[in-house]
From TrEMBL:
Name of the protein in its database record: F-box domain-containing protein
Domain of life: Eukaryota
Biological source species: Calocera cornea HHB12733
Length: 398
């Protein structure tokens, strides 16, 4: 067996093996997938070892330090495996403060495509290094911005350096109290011509109108997906409502958004104020939590799909869901068919054919409602994308 392996290693061209190994890594996206291959023969080990750095994810400060030390030692031998790194991620278990070697690690990763650090405060220096080294290549950026003084505003301005981004996820934290600094960076608007997906999140209750005004000054001609996770939007500026903080952004990009996701429970006038600006939206999603009051009344006519997140682990929330669906069933019949899909926000997967067994009380409420809603041209669907009438057709005798 060992002779067969040795023969295969000798006869196959190295570039063929490298292509195979790269294909495996692109599919698995984890270093452990390539380690068994390195044990076959010396040729495979030499070819596969640099691929260990292709998709990196860290959950501890120790691992970050160890990786940086490895990159530095290899550079002393004129080896630069960091040039193969395409994705660099830091999980929520990393320390809150910026790790002192992250910016030095970035020196070795000039072709980075993905950078995710949504729960780690990186510091403006690391932002600057990321923009300097990876700005021309990065396509997916997920970061947290904020800090004392002008730090948050400077970090927001540095986002403009990532000119080829396709996806941008910004978590805003401790920014509102320093919002005055945004007036000094107005000329650093985000000119992101290739951006398709924009996600904005803030876990804290702070005034963000200056930040949203800054974002609205940018250029996003390719943007089609907008997601807002703002459970504590506010406090509003004097004489305004929380939803008005978003008005400049919706005025800028609302007409081009095809998919819209929102968790803005405290922006009660959002549907009447903002939804009319979503003139071409096809999919609207409300994750778990209370949707804005009156959202269905102002749902854009172009909407084809409505997704509602539901906590199926709690029977206490069933009345609220049923009440919402009853309200929809009593409304006017829609001219355009609407797909209303309930998506579970827990490990349970909602499907009509198992609902009667797992949640009999809820099934007794939802099944009649699904029939009433169908009469209004609204199809109540499960996570398999089927409404109850489709299951009836499948089990009916030929």
């Amino acid at each position: 067996m060992s002779r067969v392996r040795a023969s295969v290693c000798r006869d196959m061209k190295e570039d063929v093996w490298l292509y195979i190994f790269e294909t495996i890594m692109d599919k698995e996206r984890r270093p452990s997938a390539i380690i068994p291959l390195m044990c076959v023969c010396k040729t495979w080990k030499n070819l596969a070892e640099p691929l260990l750095y292709q998709y990196l994810s860290f959950s501890s400060a120790t691992a970050i330090t160890r990786c940086h030390r490895s990159l530095m030692l290899k550079a002393l031998r004129d080896q630069f495996p960091g040039a193969r790194t395409r994705s660099l991620a830091f999980s929520h278990t990393c320390p809150d403060g910026p790790h002192p070697v992250i910016d030095r690690m970035l020196h070795y990763m000039p072709h980075l495509l993905v950078f995710h650090a949504p729960h780690t405060k990186l510091g403006t220096g690391t932002f600057e290094m990321l923009a300097q080294v990876c700005g021309p290549s990065l396509k997916d950026l997920e970061v947290q911005i904020g800090g004392d003084g002008a730090e948050g505003a400077l970090q927001a301005a540095l986002v403009s350096r990532f000119r080829v981004l396709r996806r941008l996820h910004i978590c805003v934290s401790e920014l509102g109290r320093n919002s005055a600094f945004f007036q000094f960076i107005g000329d650093q608007a985000w000119n992101l011509q290739h951006l398709e997906i924009l996600l904005l999140r803030s876990p804290s209750k702070e005034a963000l109108s200056a930040f949203f005004d800054f974002v609205s000054k940018g250029s996003f001609p390719s943007l089609t997906c907008l997601a807002l996770d703002l459970p504590w939007l506010g406090p509003p500026d004097v004489g305004t409502t929380p939803a008005e903080a978003l008005l400049s952004l919706f005025t800028k990009v609302g007409s081009q958004i095809a998919r819209f996701t929102a968790r803005i429970p405290h922006a009660d006038n959002a549907p009447s104020l903002l939804f009319p600006l979503l003139t071409t939206v096809r999919t609207v999603r409300f994750p778990i939590g209370r949707p804005p009051q009156g959202f269905f009344e102002h749902l854009p006519a172009s909407t084809e799909e409505l997704l509602l997140g539901v906590d199926f682990s709690s029977d206490e929330r069933t009345p609220a869901l049923v009440g919402l669906l009853v309200e929809l069933s009593l409304g006017e019949q829609r001219r355009k068919r609407l797909s209303l899909q309930l998506t579970s926000e827990t490990t349970y997967r909602f499907e009509w054919w198992t609902l009667g067994v797992t949640h009999p009380n809820m099934a007794g409420d939802l099944m009649p409602l699904s029939v009433w809603l169908a009469a209004k041209n609204i199809l109540l669907k499960d996570e398999a994308g089927k409404w109850i009438g489709q299951y009836e057709e499948e089990v009916s005798p030929a």
